[in-house]
Amino acid sequence: MSRREDYESKTETLLAPIVEKFGVSIYDVEYVKEGSDYYLRAYIDKPEGVDIQDCENVSRALSDALDEADFIDEAYILEVSSPGLGRTLKKDKHLRASIGEEVEVKLFKPIDKCKEFVGLLENFDEATLTIRIGDEQKTFARTDIALIRLTFDF
């Protein structure tokens, strides 16, 4: 397990009782370096959507728990937020919950001179992801996919 994965896993463990207390759920946790700064991001969700108070409550409690556990060596910035409308689908649980939804798939390399596809998420497994674009099914190797996220229209 990499340091990043270790930090994310330990943070999720600390976060579990906190989100339960405040009536929200964990969508994702990520530890990333952007420029010279490290960020620990916790994305929370609930069926009717999270608000600023949910984020503040979870942020304060998580900050205290992280200070007490003190397992991250570097200085970092803690952010707690909603995954947003165009949420990234990183994990199988995200994909499972989004079957039948419209998604945007971005590839590392073009297929038929195209790197971006939009369609309904039909299926996925360990190795592939299938979307429906009109009457056509397109299947992509998951290793070829740079990003999958929900689309949204206003």
In sequence order, what are the helices and strands, one letter per element? HEEHEHEEEEE
Q: Could you name the CATH class of the largest domain? A: Alpha Beta
Helix count equals 3
How many β-strand stretches? 8
**CATH fold-type name of the largest domain:** GMP Synthetase, Chain A, domain 3
**Main beta sheet strand tally, sense and closure:** 5 strands, antiparallel
Dominant shape: globular
CATH superfamily of the largest domain: RimP-like superfamily, N-terminal
- CATH 2nd-level architecture of the largest domain: 2-Layer Sandwich
Total discrete domains: 2
Low-confidence stretches: none
* Beta-strand percent range: 35-45%
Helix residue percentage: 25-40%
Q: What structural class do the secondary elements suggest? A: alpha+beta
The whole-number mean of residue pLDDT values reads 94
Radius of gyration: 17 Å
Question: Can you walk me through this structure?
Answer:
The protein is an alpha+beta fold and 154 residues long. The protein folds into 2 domains: 3-81, RimP-like superfamily, N-terminal (GMP Synthetase, Chain A, domain 3, 2-Layer Sandwich), CATH 3.30.300; 92-150, Roll (SH3 type barrels), CATH 2.30.30.100. 29% of the residues lie in helices and 41% in strands. It contains 3 helices and 8 strands, in the order αββαβαβββββ. The strands form 2 sheets. Strands 7-6-5-4-8 form a 5-stranded antiparallel beta sheet. The protein has a 3-stranded mixed beta sheet with strand order 1-2-3. A hairpin with a 3-residue loop joins strand 5 (114-124) and strand 6. The termini are far apart. The model has no long low-confidence stretch (mean pLDDT 94).
